[in-house]
Amino acid sequence: MGRFVADNTTLNAGSGGDVIATDDVGGVKYERVKVNFGVDGAATDVSAAAPLPVDTELSTSDLDTGAGSDPRATVGLLRAESGGATLVGSANPLPTTGPLTDTQLRAVAVPVSGTVTASGPLTDAQLRASSVPVTAALAAGVNNIGDVDVLSLPSLPAGTANIGDVDVLTVPAPLSTTGGGTEATAHRVTIANDSTGVLSVDDNGGSLTVDGSVTIGAGTANIGDVDVLTLPALVAGTAEIGKVQISDGTDVATVLPVRSLPATTEKALTTIELPTRLATYQCVTAEVAPAITIGVKELLTFFHPAAVTQDAYIVEIVVSILVTTASTTGGRTNVEVFKSTSAGTGGTNLAAADVGGGLGTSAIITNAAANVMQVKTGGGALGTALIRQGVEHATQPLGSQRFEVFKASSVGNGIILRGGSADGINIQVNRVVAHTALVDQWTASIRWVEL
């Protein structure tokens, strides 16, 4: 039997030394060595992640020049042939077939000698890349050759020559004459003698000045807007100057019919007739006993409905008090006037007295008798307080008192309830602090003008 010899070897077997890797080949051991690489003082095991670096690139300095005994490497190019390979050289060049590709032509300059025949038109990009001399005549017909700078032109032939649109930079005299030149050098314009009398003058957006006076023919002559700097004095007596527009410098005012109201965005003039006598009316309540210790007692409600187009100007509100039993200790009572937003209900309707001299009946009363009412029990929703006046304070003796709660100096200064608006006032007694044993009677009256 043959003997079995194990791989690897133990150094200094008697004392159990290091084991080194070996391969037993026919009884002879060959040492196995691991390949490392690195600079002095470092060693990196060769692996797939750290392969052994090898320089496979040759430069011209690595090649044999063929002169003398140059020790550098010699590199040759072989071409495959039947039966083996042949070294490519000047006596045995490498054959090429087929045209060079566009990429090969653009990689390096390719010298061309002899005559080169080109077929097909040049592209737009090729024409724009460099100047292309053109010596042949253009073909007859329409030829679009793009924009062309013309340096010189031959003289135009005699007769009619249509050269299209032309920008004229300078004009010779007399066309170039400006200002008040003489007649000989002035630019003259001939007006057709068969026109209809209309002459259009274009001033190019500027001002047009006419020397001397201009006479406008008889009849209707619309010359547009005219700024009049001065006017002659009007003749004595009645002078009719026609229609006149009134402006604030920006907007022209609109003249409205009599007693019409302008819109909120409208600038206008309106007329209100002021007759010698004004349509004036008055309502007076009966005696009203407050019969309250503390609280409010209604006296009179006056309401202007939206259906009434006339304006109502309240010019006077009067309250009278009759004390029939004097108070023994003091209190405080006010008369208050509020805006109201609806007609009263549940009270007594009041008839209006015509105090304007028989100019008709009140439009407010005609609309609804309940528009003026004493001691309402409902409706007449209150708005803003207009007047609050103290009329009784401390002890009240027997007797009567009259208070003008409101009195306008003129109709225009009255409390205005506009035509077409739902608006009114409410007059009431407010007992703020009680009067001991007081018994009193109240009346209220209101006077207004309708326009």
Radius of gyration: 61 Å
Helix proportion range: under 10%
The major sheet is characterized as:
6 strands, antiparallel
Q: Pairing-aware structural class of the strands and helices?
A: mainly beta
Number of strands: 24
Which blocks of ≥5 consecutive residues have pLDDT under 50?
none
Q: Report the mean per-residue pLDDT as an integer.
A: 80
Our count of helices gives 3
User: Topology as H/E string?
Assistant: EEEEEEEEHHEEEEEEEEEHEEEEEEE
Overall geometry comes to flat
Could you tell me the strand content as a percent range?
A: 25-35%
Instruction: Compute the separation of the termini in Å.
Output: 152 Å
Provide structural commentary.
By secondary structure, the chain is mainly beta. The chain has a domain of 171 residues. Helix content is 4%, strand content 28%. It contains three helices and 24 strands. The strands form eight sheets. Strands 11, 13, 17, 21, 22 and 24 form a six-stranded antiparallel sheet that branches. Strands 16-18-12-23-14-20 form a six-stranded antiparallel sheet, with no helix packed on it. The chain has a two-stranded antiparallel ribbon with strand order 1-2. The chain is flat and about 155 Å long.
